[in-house]
Amino acid sequence: MNSFSIGVDLGGTNLRIAAYTRAQERLESVAIPTRLEAGKYAVVQDMCNAIHEIARKLRGRLELVGVGVGSPGPLQLPSGKLYHLPNFPGWDGFELKIEIEKVLGMPVIIENDANAAALAELFHGSGKQRGVNSLCMLTLGTGVGNGIILNRRVWHGMAGMAGEAGHGPLEYDGPLCGCGGRGCLEQYASATAVSRMAKEAAEAGQSEEIARILATTGSISAHNVAQLADAGDEGARQVYVKVGKFLGISLSHLVNTLNLPLYVIGGGLASSWHLFAPTMFSVLLRDSYIYRLTAPRNEEDVDPQRTQIVPALLGPESGLLGAAMLPYAEMEMAVAVSS
């Protein structure tokens, strides 16, 4: 019987669940708001209800081989215990894997969501396109995630908490971050940060249009800010210049430290690449001597000995696909060990 797996992308705004075949063909999917205000057990129940719904639709035709869940970090692996998630108040110490398995009635594999996205990009996205075995990925969504793949394997670190560049402080007296630090990358390069910086621009008199939207609706999304920037609003444009500046600083640290062939920018904010990338590359050239030595010679240069920095090919689907890949990856590893 042909098989399928189910992947879950646990986001701070949306909860996405989808079934994929081994060949990564999407079969069924569900997307619902993440009800953080209702509490962690309600979110787990919503997740498991959606998993059961998808499994019921496919039962009898295909065999379910497993469920993979991509969760924000930091989390302990493989136990799946969460630690102080900046955008998930009240989830500190939550035994995510145990609680999902309790409700679902079957084993699940938990992985950092950015690690899952990085896996998908390596095997089915920009990594496959460029023929590399290692990459570093930043996911710009509600927060900023970071996944590192070395020689086709996720780099988990000592306890599964490696890859938290989103919480690397870049400005000593910067905004307080949900992680407890100040001036972290997440405070400048996430959708949440773009909304905050837009409000700051309006308060400083830098954008009448942002101020008008805020007065009318009380809020402004990163998408709205990008639309204003594309329309020529200088205050909105400067918000994305700031995104590029701090992404460039963070990437300069990563490039100097890791010296990998590929760095991928994913997540919803990556759709605004054209607004922040020019500043990002300018800062990289200024701050990273490794990048200066290894930067591509031109836009067509895809030499794997050069440091490539690109938007994710898979878009926002990378985390979901990566989560669905986890059960198959575990099966392959078990076969390799036994042989």
Report a brief summary of the structure.
Helices cover 44% and strands 19% of the residues. It is α/β, with parallel strands linked by helices.
Describe this structure in words.
The chain starts with a strand and ends with a helix. It is built from twelve helices and twelve strands. 44% of the residues lie in helices and 19% in strands. With 339 residues, it is an alpha/beta fold. The chain folds into two domains: 3-113, 2-Layer Sandwich (Nucleotidyltransferase, domain 5); 126-313, ATPase, nucleotide binding domain (Nucleotidyltransferase, domain 5), CATH 3.30.420. The strands form three sheets. The chain has a five-stranded mixed sheet. A five-stranded mixed sheet has the order 10-9-8-11-12, with helices on both faces. The protein has a two-stranded antiparallel sheet with strand order 5-6.
Strand and helix layout:
Elements: E1 3-10, E2 14-21, E3 26-33, H1 40-58, E4 63-71, E5 75-76, E6 81-82, H2 96-104, E7 109-112, H3 113-124, H4 126-130, E8 135-140, E9 144-150, E10 153-154, H5 186-189, H6 191-203, H7 208-217, H8 222-230, H9 234-258, E11 262-266, H10 273-287, H11 289-294, E12 308-311, H12 318-338
Parallel strand pairs: 1-4, 4-7, 8-11, 11-12
Antiparallel strand pairs: 1-2, 2-3, 5-6, 8-9, 9-10
Helix pairs in contact: 1-2, 3-12, 6-7, 6-9, 8-9, 9-10
In CATH, the topology of the largest domain is named Nucleotidyltransferase, domain 5
Could you give a short account of the major beta sheet? 5 strands, mixed
Structural class: alpha/beta
Beta-strand share of residues: 15-25%
Q: What Rg do the Cα atoms give? A: 20 Å
Order of helices and strands: EEEHEEEHEHHEEEHHHHHEHHEH
- CATH homology-level superfamily of the largest domain: ATPase, nucleotide binding domain
Query: Helical percent range?
Result: 40-55%
**Order of strands side by side in the largest beta sheet?**
3-2-1-4-7
So what's the CATH class of the largest domain?
A: Alpha Beta
